[in-house]
Amino acid sequence: MFELISMSKSLFPENRADVTGHLLERLEQAEKEKEDPFYYFDDLDVIHYFLYRSMNLNKKAERSGRTLKEYERELAQLIRNLLQYPDEIGLDIESVEEGSLFKSLSPRHLRRYQAWLAEESPHVKKKGPYSPATLARKTTIMKSFFAFLHENRYLKQPIHQGLLPATVRKDDRPNRDLGPSEVIQLLDYYQDRNPIMFSLIHVLVGTGMRNDELCRLKVSDVRFDPILGGFYLHVIGKGNKARDIPLLNKIMESIVRYRKTRLLPADFPSNSDEPLFPNSRWKAFRPSYFATMLGDEIEQVPILSIQARKKRITPHEFRHSFAIISYINNSDIYAIMRALGHEKIETTMIYLQKVMEREQHVVHQWKDNALGNYI
């Protein structure tokens, strides 16, 4: 029915440069012939061009590998679901246009798919509803993709307009506040029991790094600061944006302790590509495995406030802890934003929202005699 059905199991090529080179040739041929940009493209081609096209002359400003994988995963799931569950979704496609799945869709199909994904999809039936943030992310990627196809005249209709907004309300966000007291309890627990866990938590909360940023660190990313003294980490974050994170002396000691526990040298040559925090096989952690490992370990800790939490603790919680501890210590919010590598202050405010609301509650303005001896 659709040409996409005959594709190999893998939608995504290993050699992206070759694919984009061929696509650019066809794009330029269409331009010479005064045809629409994607005149010589099929569904698979438009997926590849959307994902792998060059978007900036500065290669370092291109989408990060992490972002690309996220987009690949979401688009693969979209195609798989549309082809596997057309009746359940309600794809009442009356005529197939040019053998194309995408060209055969209408706004109502995306609207139905979005509702099915949120309410009736296999994931929902097996594991429960997606979180509002996950639905918002999926909607954003779908909308971006189909809007791109319409803007380049591959699609005649603006079918992306059939997608409903997936708003994430303040109360929908999971509580990721892990305050100083709980962090101290975890560090106290692990200090003499498990130097690996102690060091990882200590470094995460002392730097505010993302999970994947820590997993990608190399030995050469530890650098000495000749101006201010001490060491810092050179970190590549989202969007391939670099930032330098100064290392407090005790955080640096934890990095050294981690490597010595793994029986590795604790010097930091500038030409070493070895992972800074290797796993037990001396390889770099995969971010997904690292998050699972950390969560599994912390679930075993006999601390009541930790055990009472409804959700597992992930590396991201310690990023929130970094923000909260910085705020409690009177750090400027814009300084916290820059330290975390956020592009927007609104993102940083999400991290600090609950602690700021409690701190600024009107009850703190009561005078000592408001309730006599009872205040």
Name some characteristics of this structure.
mainly alpha; hpI Integrase, Chain A; three-stranded antiparallel beta sheet; 16 helices; globular
What's this, in brief?
With 375 residues, the chain is mainly α.
Q: Got a strand count? A: 3
Mean pLDDT over the residues: 87
* Main β sheet profile: 3 strands, antiparallel
Q: Enumerate how many helices there are, as a single number.
A: 16
Which structural class fits the helix and strand makeup? mainly alpha
| Helix-strand sequence | HHHHHHHHHHEEEHHHHHH
Q: What is the CATH fold-level name of the largest domain?
A: hpI Integrase, Chain A
Q: CA-to-CA gap between the ends?
A: 74 Å
Overall helicity: 40-55%
Low-confidence stretches: none
Sum up the overall morphology in one term: globular
How large is the radius of gyration?
25 Å
If classified by CATH, what would the architecture of the largest domain be? Orthogonal Bundle
Can you tell me the CATH superfamily of the largest domain?
A: Intergrase catalytic core
Any idea of the CATH class of the largest domain?
Mainly Alpha
